[in-house]
Specification:
CATH class: Mainly Beta
Helix content: under 10%
CATH topology: Immunoglobulin-like
Number of helices: 1
CATH architecture: Sandwich
Radius of gyration: 18 Å
Distance between the termini: 36 Å
């Protein structure tokens, strides 16, 4: 096979990638995939954000904060079951082990978006800045899905 043919194939694949591939974000060893949130009713003051973080580096990294212009603040939360009751508490960081992934989901760790400036509407994208201890700031967009969504639909 000629080098020109291989280069042409690579170019076609790069330009023909489906739009869903654009909903992943990479900076250095950190990759953020499928960031999403749910639509909120009028007057809601909080929302939750979910995503998957992959760390392809050789060292553990940590999410040490997040922010968005769509709310007053973003807190890092974990949900745990204690005595048959689900409890939520704020934490100072999420550890993302080397060569592993960390998933924020409705039944576990998540981002609590507090003090919404206006309701989140299905189809909208919400800018979110994730701060990593080693990886720095990674800007992502949360895709707003239907209010009852339990997983990303993109």
């Amino acid at each position: 096979m000629s080098k020109v043919f291989i280069a042409a194939c690579v170019a076609i694949v790069a330009f023909a990638s489906p739009p869903a591939a654009a909903h992943g974000y990479t900076k250095g060893f950190i990759q953020v995939r499928h960031p999403w949130t749910r639509a909120t009713p009028p007057g809601a003051e909080v929302a939750a954000g979910y995503l998957e973080i992959r760390n392809s580096g050789r060292e553990t990294d940590r999410v040490i904060g997040a922010s968005t212009p769509a709310a007053e603040r973003v807190e890092l939360h974990v949900a745990t079951r204690e005595g048959g009751v689900m409890k939520m508490r704020e934490v100072t960081s999420f550890e993302v082990p080397a060569r592993k992934r960390f998933v924020l989901s409705p039944s576990g760790a998540h981002l609590m978006i507090v003090g919404l400036r206006k309701p989140f509407v299905k189809g909208q994208r919400i800018l979110l800045m994730l701060r990593f201890e080693r990886g720095g700031v990674v800007p992502v967009e949360l895709e707003v899905q239907a209010g009852g969504s339990k997983k990303p639909h993109h």
